[in-house]
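Hi R.,

Here are the chain sequences for the assembly we discussed:
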Amino acid sequence: MTIKEIAKRANVSLGTVDRVIHDRGKVSKETKEKILRILKEVDYKPNFYARGLVLNKSYVITALVPDFDAGEYWEMPSRGIKQAAKDLNQFGIKVVFFYFDQNDSESFIRKVQEVLELKPDGVILTPVINFEAVKLCARLRTMAIPFSIIDSNIQNSGSISFIGQDAIQSGRLAAKLLSTSTGGKGKILILSIKNNENHNKTLQKRSEGFKDFLSQSDSLQDIKIVELNVDQRESNWKECLEDILVGQNPDGIYVPSSKVHFVAEVLMKRKLKIKLVGNDLIDNNLDFIAAGIIDYIIDQRPETQGYLAVENFYKYLVTKQRVENDYYLPLDIITKENYMYYRSQ
Amino acid sequence: MTIKEIAKRANVSLGTVDRVIHDRGKVSKETKEKILRILKEVDYKPNFYARGLVLNKSYVITALVPDFDAGEYWEMPSRGIKQAAKDLNQFGIKVVFFYFDQNDSESFIRKVQEVLELKPDGVILTPVINFEAVKLCARLRTMAIPFSIIDSNIQNSGSISFIGQDAIQSGRLAAKLLSTSTGGKGKILILSIKNNENHNKTLQKRSEGFKDFLSQSDSLQDIKIVELNVDQRESNWKECLEDILVGQNPDGIYVPSSKVHFVAEVLMKRKLKIKLVGNDLIDNNLDFIAAGIIDYIIDQRPETQGYLAVENFYKYLVTKQRVENDYYLPLDIITKENYMYYRSQ
DNA sequence: TTGTATGCGTTATCAT
DNA sequence: ATGATAACGCATACAA
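And here is the predicted structure of the full complex:
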């Protein structure tokens, strides 16, 4: 059903119908009501193609994400964002990337400046440098630029959506898998590998969930937990790591981040048979999952997170649909027997 | 870059450019080459909206799937297909469902007749009634109607794509999870619940993969496997099931289908603590996963399968993109700690 | 308050 | 072999 046909039905011109549809006023009450009635009756849906053609708008979305080396975690959201940019290009969606150094607040602040100068139609941001990210949210609100947050959330940020993970539940899940693997007993090591003070919120929540799970289960009271950190800013951190693993010799290890491959490396080299659970099916972890050195990876689809963030803007800006506020992605359990079907979804 | 602009560059009218783009001939060799060169130079991409508007085509896709009661497996693919039909409606994609009784070949044959009479632009089919499905593929090929297969595959069918699961690997994965849960030892029961002779190909492959995994692992040679069937066509099959479970009293049970909830029911009722692994996060299994009665569910995203099948036709028919031939979906591992994020993806 | 005309980019048809 | 033009449905500027 087209506007023209509706106009004919209502005995008015299509201009009048259009004014009613867009609520531009200048229509008498009676005709407005009549047209509204017909519109509802025929369940009028504007022709997507005609609408897109005449509007011919394009939208610039900026993606403010940490830079990365190949194989690292932040490559994944970037991939998803790029793929979505490609798929949605025909609808006028353009994505401009701004990469910052996650260990350097100043670099984030500089990139924020560049983003704001661009006056984009939407911003995708990652709250890795939390304090500055919160400030950015406030500025975007006053500038009336819609934004969405991926990875981890900022409460009451005013974003159109959050797309990410439930980090606490991720930790609980890890605890379930690891404790099952060690037969519900033994010594378990929670090993955090950090390289700055900024983005350990997620690590912290995962550890919390992990411990919570073990403490709440009556049958797992025999498990002994040891919590240790390794700081990548120390020059000898790799030796530290090795010393810890050999010295502690636990039955299971949980690394609440994508850096589990560093541990896997040591286990392989030293031929240590220790159950190992970590996060994120990044390239660096892939071989260790395939070899069974890492027993389980918990993955929250970072690629999909990036993709959905862009797609959400498409829905929000182009099709004017409402978008979900909070979008928690599934916590995928990945192991030697199913990892091969998890790449490039 | 529009056709008009390209025409100006080439000093011809836009009609000529159009003839070159669509290779309709009636263009001199020199001008054709010149235009082709410019087209490549500017990387011309037709405006999606204008194209859609002027073509104004609509496509009818038929979905030939088994009927179901609420909460059963086949509800999932149907849901995905419906969702895709809704999302892609604006692009002229219309889906017509034909539900058949999976225990009655005749009903399938009747529905096939109806499908063919409709002369659809595409067919989505499920090879549950394998023999008849193979015949249908042949007829669709001669009628030049593109079709795609979901769930389980038919070799060399000539489909534009297959979207489904790797059933053997699914069985292997189940074996890994269940054997880990029983501590790598004990008695394990493979329990198939059937109600016809048609669709046990998937069950068979899963069982095969399951046994294969156990036999190939040196450390799992202590595990004793018992294989049993329950036939739902017997009036007293529920009692049979109960007798088996109580009589065998195994350490772990693998039900290679979505019907694992029937076993879970008995375990709950009889308060039996037996490790249980099955397939498909259908509504009927949901409460048992939440309660921890079912330890692991392996799910191959049946909803996504349906969605992708329709989306593939959109790509194939509307945007004329190439589509993937074989599309194996990830084997998701679902358990008490992560099931809540797997519904309505 | 209402109606009309123009254009968006592509396709397809009709003249030349 | 080439060019001109109408049509798709919608949005909008402008005329009445």
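Chain A has three domains: 3-46, 54-164+302-330, 167-299. Chain A is about 45% helix and 20% strand.

Let me know if anything looks off.

Best,
T.
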